[in-house]
């Protein structure tokens, strides 16, 4: 396996030196990211039993496959890891397997009861939550216990504690406990998902980032606000507008802020879906990852992940809720690749998805702080603590 890994590393280095990284086009950067994610996540999925031909084929496909095909494979690779993580969480939290089997006949988060805003804290409104949603029974474990058991099963978990970045504004940072291989899904970016058409409803609009460092934007314009998620919780429950997290001092140049409750600018009430989410999710802390200091190198990168909403058993472990009022999510095509053929399946279908983000390891990580390249070089006002992680890329 060491020989395959050496070849893989050489392929990544060649890609990193490509002229595409020196160009300023956002599209080119996105394509380069997908190319890298294709290599990282595909290598991870091969596992320790990889054959030389498999590794060669990954490298060859990274050079030849279309952007669309590589995106599909990245999505499949990430989803494969996410579902594995969710199985571990079921083993940890569900009383027994019969509970999961019975979920199909139990009331779900999408009932005929009136839907209050999943993020009323973001849009205001005085409507009360008329909750008829059943929350499946889980074991009464504290989040720290869940985290430790996940580490025992999966090999790693996350911890939020004071950052080791040598800067006075570093605040809290994200640390991986255990060992994670290159291409591993390290963390979910939690919070409220705003499609481009709803960005005007983000608290503080139009200066949405003035008191909130927990905002992140996908390439497609989707914005995720992690501030309402905060540091998670100690139970599985319905996420509704009555839950307002305590302000926290978290990342660089971030100060204690209060949650701003905004009224929509046009006077309308636009809410989110009511969902049962697992607040003890040990990986729902990507918003605590800091930017590396000068001389340090990022060890994770952002990866778009479109979660298929029809997978109801997995849904509680996806720490996001869509800011919309019962509207269907954008439809995304999913196909099925197989490592031996590397060809798209004709069995494609359009499914409703929740557009989220995860962090993927760009190298093996062991008991260290998780560092993410923020790519802030194009901002008008660059924070004093920011140093480009890659001069050519930034």
Automatic annotation (TrEMBL):
InterPro entries: SET_dom_sf, SETD9. Signal peptide: none annotated. Residues 101-122 are annotated as: Disordered. Residues 104-117 have a biased composition (Low complexity). Transmembrane segments: none annotated. Gene3D superfamilies: SET domain. It comes from the Eukaryota. This is SET domain-containing protein.
